[in-house]
Amino acid sequence: MIVVTDASPLLYLVLLGADHLLADLYQNVICPETVLRECCHPHAPEKLRQWAAHPPEWLHVLADAADALPGLLHLDPGERAAIQTAHSLGARIVLMDEKKGRLAAESLGFVAVGVIGIITTAARQGMIDFEPVIRRLIETTNFRVSDAVLDRARATLTRPPEPFR
C-alpha cells in the first residue's frame, strides 16, 4: 500500500512523540520534497525541524511529481505536492488534515486520512489508548477538532475492526 503524507500529520504526530504510528500502520510513507521543506521551515516547531533534518527510514522523501493536476491551485504547495505525488504513484491514501486539501484529494478518488483517523486506527488496533493521546493532542498543540468529529471517532472504537479495502 502506498501512502503519501502532507506536513500536518507529521507535525502533530512528531509533537506528540507518536510519529512511529505511521510506520506501525503503513510501514512506508512517501513524503514529497515540498512537504519535507515545509517541515524544515524556520517557523516550524523546533522538534519537527530536528525530526525532518534526520527523517526515519520509513519516511521516503521523493521529488515532487512533475504532472500538475487541474483544480489544485487553491491548495498550499505541500497539499498540492502530496496529492500530485499520490496520483503519480497510484497511491490510495493521502495523509492530510486541512479541509480543502482533504476535499480535493477525495474528489480525485483518494482516501484522505488525518491525525484523528490515524490515532483512531491505532487505537482500534490496540497500539495506543485513544483518550490520553487525544487529550494531549488538544492540550499541548494548536490542533483543533470538533466534538462531532471526536464523537464519530469514539463511536468507531466500539465497532469491530473492518478490513481495509
Report on this model:
The model has no long low-confidence stretch (mean pLDDT 93). It contains 9 helices and 5 strands. It has 2 domains: 112 residues, 5'-nuclease (Rossmann fold), CATH 3.40.50.1010; 41 residues, no CATH class. Helix 6 links the parallel strand 4 and strand 5. It is globular. It is 53% helix and 10% strand. It has 165 residues and is an alpha/beta fold. The protein starts with a strand and ends in an 8-residue tail after the last helix. It has a 5-stranded parallel beta sheet with strand order 3-2-1-4-5.
Architecture of the largest domain, according to CATH? Answer: 3-Layer(aba) Sandwich
Structural class estimated from helices and strands: alpha/beta
What amount of the residues lies in strands? 5-15%
Helix run count: 9
Shape: globular
Count of distinct structural domains = 2
Enumerate the spans where pLDDT stays under 50 for 5 or more consecutive residues: none
Q: What is the H/E string?
A: EHHEHHEHEHEHHH
Write the topology of this structure.
Layout: E1 3-5, H1 7-16, H2 20-26, E2 29-32, H3 33-40, H4 46-53, E3 59-62, H5 77-89, E4 93-95, H6 99-107, E5 111-113, H7 115-124, H8 130-140, H9 147-157
Parallel strand pairs: 1-2, 1-4, 2-3, 4-5
Helix pairs in contact: 2-7, 3-4, 3-5, 7-9
